[in-house]
Amino acid sequence: MSEPATVDTPLKKLVGDKTAKALATHLDLHTAGDLVYHFPRRYDERGEHTDIRSLDVGEQVTVLAQVQRTAVRPMRQRRGNLLEVTVGDGSGGVLTLTFFGNQAWRERELRPGRWGLFAGKVTEFRGKRQLNGPEYVLLGEGGDGEAAVSDEIEEFAGALIPVYPAAAALPTWVIARCVRVVLDTFTPPDDPLPADVRASRKLVGLGTALKEIHRPSSKEALHRARRRLKWDEAFAVQLTLVQRKHRAADWPARPRPARPGGLLEAFDARLPYELTEGQRDVGVEIAEDLAAPHPMHRLLQGEVGSGKTVVALRAMLQVVDAGGQAALLAPTEVLAAQHHRGMLDLLGPLGRAGELGSAEHATRVELVTGSLGAAARRRALGEVASGAAGIVLGTHALLYEGVDFADLGLVVVDEQHRFGVEQRDALRAKADQPPHVLVMTATPIPRTVAMTVYGDLEVSTLSQLPRGRSPIASHVVPAAEKPAYLDRAWRRLREEVNAGHQAYVVCPRIGDGPTSDEEPPPEDDNGRRPPLAVTEVAPLLAEGPLHGLRIGVLHGRLPADEKDAVMRSFAAGDLDVLVATTVIEVGVDVPNATVMIVLDADRFGVSQLHQLRGRVGRGAAAGLCLLVSEAAEGSSARERLDAVASTSDGFKLAELDLEQRREGDVLGATQSGHRSHLRLLSLRRDTELIRDARAEAITLIEDDPELTRNPALAASVAALVDEDRAEYLEKG
C-alpha cells in the first residue's frame, strides 16, 4: 500500500516526474496540498449543456458537447485530408473541430451521438467558431462493443463533471486524473476551525469538503463543501483584519484635540462656501479620532468633487493647532503640486507664515518632490525639520530620502492603492509615536469590498456634492458603426472651445518608447489593433479635426517639470485641449474644462471611466463626456460603456465593476509570486457569509487576540493569507 500523502508531499512522488513537472511549469502546483486546493472552475452535468453561443473568440475553453456530424475533405494547400467535426450543446450552439492530416481513426472515434469534453482556444473562420486540433476525452462507451476511452473516463462516471482551470498542455481531464491519484492516498490536515464555530455555522469538516469539491457525491454535498471552503477564506481574511485593528487600538498615539480660536476656526470663517452636511458629519468623526490616545486609521471615500480635500485640510489644521505637523502623500508630482497650489489658495494668509500679509498665527505649506532643485530642497527640508512647515505635501518620497519631521501627527494618503507595510514602518520611524492616518479615495467602494479589503479601517462616506457643481452628461460614440458620430464629437469639442471652455482627449497608451505600468500591452491575444496612443493621436488631431486649437500633451513619461508646466498652462487657459493618458484621472482640477473625449473607452475599467469623467463639469458650466469605442453593439464591452453612460451613481458602477472584474483583481489573490489559496470567495455573491465570518472573527479575537489558544487556526490563516496577501490587505 502506498504511503499516505499530506499537504506537503511533493507531486512527483504521487503522479510521476513528467506530469509533476508539467503541473509545476504550467499551473505552479508543486505539492499535494497545492493540487487539492486547485479547485474546479465549474461542473458540467450531462443533460445540462454548455452554452457554446456564449464563448468568446480567443478564450481557452473546455466544453461538454455532443458530436453531430463529421466530414472529410482534401486540403487545398497541401496533401492530405482535413477532418471537420461539428459538435453541439443541445441549445443551438455549435463548434467546428478541425484536425489536419490523415486521421481516419479519429473519424471512427468521433461518431455522431458521442459526448465528450473538448478543450482548446476558440477561433473564428468565415463566421464560424471553431477549435483547431483540440484535446478531448469522450464520455461513456460508443456502442458496437467500442470500449470506453482510457481509464481517465472513470473520473467522469458521476453526474457532476469537474472542469479545472487548465493550460494548453494540461487539459482538465489530466488534472482530474492527478487529483484522483492524490485523493486516493491523501490525509487531510486536522481541522483548524474551532468546533463551536463549525457547529454554530453548520459547516462540514475540512476533509469532507476537500473530497466533495473534487468528486461530489451530489449537488447538496458540493454546495456544503464549497460553503465550508469559502468560509475558510472569508474567516482567514477577517481574522487578519480584525486582529490588525485590535493591535492598532493598543498602539499609543499623541491626542490632537481641536483648539478653540486656532487655525481651523479661522479657516472655517474664511471659507467662501458652506460645508455640506456630509462634510460636517465626517469632520466630527475625524476630529474625535484625532483627539483619541490611539492612532486614527480611517478611509474617506466620496465621489469626485464631493469635497474630500477640504475635509482632509480641516483635519490637518486641527493637528497643526495641537502643535503637530501633517503630511499629504499624493500618487504623482502633478497632483502634489496641484494640492500645494489649491491649499495655498484656500488658506490664503493662514498658510503664509513669515511672509508679508500673513495671519498672526499662520503656518507654512511646503511642497517636497523629487524634482525640486538642490537649494529649494534644502530650504524646504529645513522648514519641515524645524516644524515651521505645519503642512507638508509630496509623493511617497516624503517617507524616505532624508525627510525629517519635528512632530508628525497626521498622514493623509490621497488616491493611493498601494499604501502598505513598508510605508507604515517608514512613517512610524519618522514619529515618536504612530501618526494618525487618513486614506482618501474617489472610487466608490461597495460595502462588501470595504468590509473585506479595508476591514481594518473605519469607513466614512461623502455622498453629497457641494452646491454649484454641475451635472455631467455621458454618451457612447459608436465609431465603427457610425463614423459620422465621431466627426460630430470633434465638432462638439470645438463648440465648447469656441464658447471659451477647455477639453480633454484621453488615450489608453502613451506611444512609442519604453512602456510604463499604466500602459496595456500593444496588442491583445485576438489580434485587435494596438490601443490609441497620445503621441500618435495628438499630431493627427492638430492636423485634422482640431486644427488651429492650442493642444498640449501630458503623460507619465514626461519629466516632472515638463508635466507641471503643461498642467499650469492648461489651468491658466493657455491651452484649449489636453491630450493625455490616465495621468489626469486623479485630482486634476480645472473648472473651465467642460468636455472629455475618451478614445478606445472599452479599454478602460468602469471605475476608471467614472473617475476620468469627474475631471469635467467642475465649474459652473455643465460637463460632457463622450466615450468613443469600436466595440460591437451587444458585446460585454459595449454594455459596460452603456452602463457608465446611463448613470452617474458611482456606487452602482462600483457594483457593476465588481461583477465584471475577476474577484482576484479585488482580493489580490496572487501576490509577488507567492501562492494564495483564496479561490472561491465572491465579494458579490457571498456578502452574508463574509458578514457572518467577520462577526465570528470579532468574537474570537476579543477572547484570544493572538490566537495562542488556536495554533492550528493561526497556521491555517497564515497559509491562506500569506505575508504578501496580508500586505495587500493592509495596503487597501
Question: Quick recap of the structure?
Answer:
With 732 residues, this protein is an alpha/beta fold. It folds into 3 domains: 11-143 and 150-214, Nucleic acid-binding proteins (OB fold (Dihydrolipoamide Acetyltransferase, E2P)), CATH 2.40.50.140; 275-462, 3-Layer(aba) Sandwich (Rossmann fold); 472-518 and 527-660, Rossmann fold (3-Layer(aba) Sandwich), CATH 3.40.50.
Structural notes for this entry:
The chain has 732 residues and is of the alpha/beta class. The chain has 3 domains: 11-143 and 150-214, OB fold (Dihydrolipoamide Acetyltransferase, E2P) (Beta Barrel); 275-462, Rossmann fold, CATH 3.40.50; 472-518 and 527-660, Rossmann fold, CATH 3.40.50. The chain is built from 25 helices and 21 strands. It has a 7-stranded parallel beta sheet, with helices on both faces. A 6-stranded parallel beta sheet has the order 16-21-20-17-19-18, with helices on both faces. Strand 20 (593-598), helix 19 and strand 21 form a beta-alpha-beta unit. Helix 8 (219-250) crosses helix 24 (711-720) and helix 10 runs parallel beside helix 11. The radius of gyration is 30 Å and the shape is globular. The two termini are 49 Å apart.
Characterize the biggest β-sheet.
7 strands, parallel
Spatial separation of the terminal alpha carbons: 49 Å
- Structurally, the number of domains stands at 3
CATH superfamily of the largest domain: Nucleic acid-binding proteins
Total number of β-strand segments? 21
- Helix content estimate: 25-40%
Number of helices: 25
Which class of secondary structure composition applies to the elements?
A: alpha/beta
Question: What is the CATH topology classification name of the largest domain?
Answer: OB fold (Dihydrolipoamide Acetyltransferase, E2P)
CATH architecture of the largest domain: Beta Barrel
Query: Compute the gyration radius: what is it?
Result: 30 Å
Low-confidence stretches: 142-155, 514-527, 664-677, 724-732
What share of the residues does DSSP label as strand, in percent? 15-25%
Q: Give average pLDDT, whole number.
A: 83
Shape: globular
Give the strand order, joined by hyphens, for the main sheet.
11-12-10-13-14-9-15
Q: CATH class of the largest domain, anyone?
A: Mainly Beta
GO biological process, one term: DNA repair
GO molecular function: ATP binding; DNA binding; DNA helicase activity; hydrolase activity
Domain Helicase C-terminal: 485-659
InterPro entries: DEAD/DEAH_box_helicase_dom (IPR011545), Helicase_ATP-bd (IPR014001), Helicase_C-like (IPR001650), NA-bd_OB-fold (IPR012340), P-loop_NTPase (IPR027417), RecG/Mfd (IPR047112), RecG_dom3_C (IPR045562), RecG_wedge (IPR033454)
